[in-house]
Amino acid sequence: MDNVGKLIFKRLEFIVQRLKQKNNKNLYALDLGCGDGYWSKKLQEFGFIVDAVDKNKDILNNLKNNKNINIYCTDVLNFKFPKKYYDVVICLNLLHLLNENNRTFIIKKIYNTTKFGGTAFLLFKQNINNPILISDFWIFDIIFCKNFFLNNEWYIFLELKKPKFSHKLKKIIEFFLK
Description:
Layout: H1 3-22, E1 27-32, H2 38-45, E2 48-54, H3 57-60, E3 69-73, E4 86-92, H4 100-113, E5 114-125, E6 141-150, E7 153-161, H5 167-176
Parallel strand pairs: 1-2, 1-4, 2-3, 4-5
Antiparallel strand pairs: 5-7, 6-7
């Protein structure tokens, strides 16, 4: 595991411990653009029921016989995101592949599918022609942000928390995110 993977693992481990202290029910996670399922398997090992989403059917075969991992072979733009369902959402190396409109769409979907108080982990490459701005994530509380220079490219890792709002503010934000 490289340094970025170690950082994600450490942050995820901390979140899992916090969630398990607060919640003795099932924990749910979403792995968007899961690839070979490495992080889906880690989440499963931590005790999550995981929804793994990727459009590549061949690599999803790695996850077929894993208990508590539900496989969805679809483009992330077509995935049916349930509302306020997941305790943790992981979206690694995906956002920079999307154009600005689709990226905004996915960020809103991640927000809407995350439970209040839930956490999203995002890792993306910065592209000067299609930059991802930290302000794109204004609806979340940014808990942790780290820049990495890997293979001659800049990456950003974000740990975001969906804040627990007052009822009125929650309704206003939900209205604008429809």
